[in-house]
Amino acid sequence: MPRKKYIPETPSLFDFIEREEKAPEKEEQKLFFISFGSGSSGNCSFFGTKDSGILIDAGVKPENVIPVLKKYGISMSAVRAILITHDHADHVRYAYKIMKKHPHLAFICTPKCLKGIFLRHSLTIRLKDYHRPIFIETPITVGTFKVTAFTTMHDGTDNVGYFIEYGDVKFAIATDLGCISERVDYYMRQATHIVLESNYDEYMLTHGKYPLYLQSRIMAENGHLDNKVAAAYIAKIYSEKLSHVFLCHLSNDNNTPEKALEEVRSSLSAAGITMGDASESLEAREADLQVTTLPRYDASALYVLRSE
């Protein structure tokens, strides 16, 4: 029996996402994922169908987001909310600009994260008018999706990843984290599709131009994730239900897509797992696992997410 929810006497801005929607009688729509930018220059991605979707983070200019959605036949009127992972500028700087033009959106983050946003940045207090709180490991319904926030180890305020469920697809995203904690592991192991940070190559970082204090910050447990750690972890948790891995937040100075992918390929190969490039080519589709990197400055391809 579905859980009853309190319905206020006066409808609020968020009534439409508070309602538990009935499962559609027709076949579920195609589910898409697009990244509009991934890295310290700005992060934002879309997860959803053409009728109901979510933006994850708001660190990319809306003029680099909305036309891409439109290109694929997705209207901003179908986007229900923005999920914020943490309060660093590359994840929140364009939040109000997006909300102001599309006031139907809910601004979803933990209360502590919202406080951190106002402490760290000069974003308008009007963001509070759009805020819908989410609490760690307490699922909420956003449109047709079940969304759960889980704690990640990073040096922002109340940092989270998200576990999003839609039918048989289980999508886990952790954009910034210094280590794989027990709770990150818990959600990643359930996922059919993963977005995971693969930030730096250790040799490039330690032999590059970054000062020691910055190297230490990046390599800390609440910093960023090393290519080798990400690759070994992906091989460790692989199962037949895991379809795609998207490597995100690659450093511009201390990494390359080729190095990140080669580390994953090497770890998977050692475990007897074949790797495709997520291109949908016949050769790629024969592989056990599809792995690709998300572009730093540009939009990615449109990926159709299927449970296999």
Secondary structure layout:
Blueprint: H1 15-18, E1 31-37, E2 44-48, E3 53-56, H2 66-71, E4 79-83, H3 89-92, H4 95-101, E5 106-109, H5 111-120, E6 131-133, E7 140-142, E8 145-151, E9 160-166, E10 169-174, H6 182-188, E11 193-197, H7 202-206, H8 212-219, H9 227-237, E12 244-248, H10 257-270, E13 275-276, H11 282-285, E14 289-293, E15 303-305
Parallel strand pairs: 3-4, 4-5, 5-6, 10-11, 11-12, 12-14, 13-14
Antiparallel strand pairs: 1-2, 1-15, 2-3, 7-8, 8-9, 9-10
Helix pairs in contact: 9-10
SSE order: HEEEHEHHEHEEEEEHEHHHEHEHEE
Q: Distance between the terminal alpha carbons, to the nearest Å?
A: 29 Å
CATH class: Alpha Beta
CATH architecture: 4-Layer Sandwich
> What fold name stands as the CATH topology?
Metallo-beta-lactamase, Chain A
Tell me the count of domains: 1
Overall radius of gyration: 19 Å
Query: How many strands?
Result: 15
CATH level-four homologous superfamily name: Ribonuclease Z/Hydroxyacylglutathione hydrolase-like
Number of helices: 11
Estimate the helix proportion, in percent. 25-40%
**How would you state the average pLDDT, rounded?**
91
**Overall SS class:** alpha/beta
Strand order of the largest sheet: 7-8-9-10-11-12-14-13
Shape: globular
SS strand fraction: 15-25%
**Low-pLDDT residue intervals, each spanning 5 or more residues:** 1-27
